[in-house]
Specification:
The complex is a heterodimer of chains A (206) and B (214). With 206 residues, chain A is mostly helical. Chain A has eight helices and two strands, in the order αααααααββα. Chain B is built from three helices and nine strands; from the N terminus they run H-E-E-E-E-E-E-E-H-E-E-H. Chain B is elongated and about 85 Å long. Chain B is an alpha+beta fold and 214 residues long. The chains are: A mainly alpha (206), B alpha+beta (214). At the A-B interface, helix 4 of A face helix 1 of B.
């Protein structure tokens, strides 16, 4: 009995940690590249995007896991999209009502969460095959992993493009901001360098 | 006949068997969205009005209320920069009974995406009180400088609808100095302001809301 409990706890731990590093959606699976490149010019929008993705991921995984035994295989993608679109619309309405400035900053990238591969991937790979608890833990792990990645990328870009982090001045007065870091070119270069670093760190381990 | 009916019934049965979850889910999700929309849409609308009033209030500080012309029963329709007829939101800037000017919500193509502006003019549509950007996706570091005060300040007190963009020199008379590295964005702003002030002024003169402009 104790053994079984340990194993279950072990599964939960492995599932939770997978999204943070081993199966990190951005650095290891290269999923969700659109928001990763588009909304990481500053930390605030990146964090808002990450939290929105966590909300959608958790809610859609809960619904998909609960209906997993009722799903018809040929209609499952339709069901996933319907579920995800509903929660994305709710997240979008919430931001427009309570965070209007952030909603404007993120622009079309909130509605575009509907086509974020991470969410549909977790619905297909995890929630449609696992229990409710495992699905929720997987969604939290993947969502937090995605959010942290976005924040790391955004911190580097915001720091170098404005000399600030969270709109607080960090760099000394002599620092000349690199405007290119807030442009798409800055996103591609930073992501490329971070991917290279992660590959170097994990070389031979996978 | 009977066989055909049985076949039709079994087809419906098959359809329901396959799609009942989709139908039920669609209904439940639709209900959820309707509830969320009903709960938050007044707040979303209020946010939009607050933003407009805030921007308009900064452009015409003497005004206390911005009354939409539509509320006064006047609809202003002008030719947009694309060439089609479009309804334009025009607000009367009031303080008590006195009119201090007008604001126009204008939109036109920018360098990357459309640019939405709020333009403020004096009560006779003769001089520009200023403008602000409602929405734009111009390039960070260059085109998005259209939002900055240094660029916007150039438009204040210039003769309405006769702005001219220059790439170098001094922004005197009715000249506007383009942002370095963002000529297209600067040109778009000047074009939108010139076009909408001219079009709205003519339409308002036709409706008797302004003098003949002399």
């Amino acid at each position: 009995m104790a053994n079984n409990s340990d194993t279950t706890a072990g599964i939960y731990k492995v599932t939770l940690l997978a999204g943070l590093w081993r199966e990190n959606p951005v650095f290891r699976l290269l999923l969700g590249m659109c928001p990763t490149l588009a909304v990481t010019a500053a930390v605030k929008p990146a964090l808002t995007m990450g939290l929105s993705v966590i909300f959608v991921l958790v809610c859609s995984n809960i619904v998909v896991s609960l209906m997993r035994n009722l799903l018809k295989p040929h209609l499952r993608i339709l069901m996933f999209t319907l579920t995800i679109a509903t929660f994305v619309t709710i997240a979008d309405l919430f931001l427009r009502a309570f965070q209007p400035v952030m909603s404007e900053t993120l622009g079309p990238y909130v509605p575009l969460i509907i086509v974020n591969c991470i969410i549909i991937c977790r619905a297909e790979a995890c929630a449609s095959k696992n229990t409710l608890v495992v699905s929720i833990i997987d969604a939290v792990g993947m969502g937090v992993g995605f959010t942290l990645t976005l924040c790391v990328l955004a911190s580097i870009r915001e720091l170098l493009s404005t000399g600030m982090i969270f709109e607080a001045k960090v760099m000394p007065d002599w620092f000349v901001p690199w405007a290119a870091m807030s442009m798409p070119v800055g996103a591609f270069i930073t992501l490329g360098l971070l991917l290279g670093l992660v590959n170097k760190l994990t070389k031979g381990k996978s | 006949m009977y066989r055909r009916e049985v076949k039709a019934v079994s087809k419906i049965k098959y359809f329901v068997q396959q799609s009942w979850l989709l139908i039920v889910s669609s209904f439940c999700f639709g209900l959820l969205l309707a509830i969320a929309n009903a709960a938050w849409s007044p707040r979303i609308e209020q946010n939009r009005i607050n933003k407009l009033n805030d921007l308009a209030g900064r452009l015409i500080p003497k005004a206390k209320d911005f009354v939409p012309l539509e509320k006064l029963g006047v609809v202003i329709e002008v030719t947009s920069l694309k060439g089609d007829k479009k309804k334009v939101d025009v607000y009367k800037a009031m303080a008590g009974e006195e009119c201090f000017g007008w604001t126009i919500n204008a939109v036109g193509p920018g360098f990357q995406d459309k640019i939405e502006l709020i333009i403020a003019v004096d009560k006779d549509f003769k001089t520009i009180a200023g403008f602000d950007v409602l929405a734009s996706n111009e390039s960070p570091g260059t085109g998005d400088k259209i939002k900055e005060k240094d660029f916007r300040k150039q438009f204040e007190n210039k003769i309405a609808a006769k702005l001219e963009l220059i790439k170098s020199g001094k922004a005197k008379d009715n000249k506007i100095l383009a942002i370095s590295g963002a000529t297209i964005s600067s040109e778009s702003v000047v074009k939108i302001i010139n076009h909408y002030i001219k079009e709205v002024r003519e339409e308002m003169q036709k409706k008797g809301l302004l003098g003949n402009g002399k």
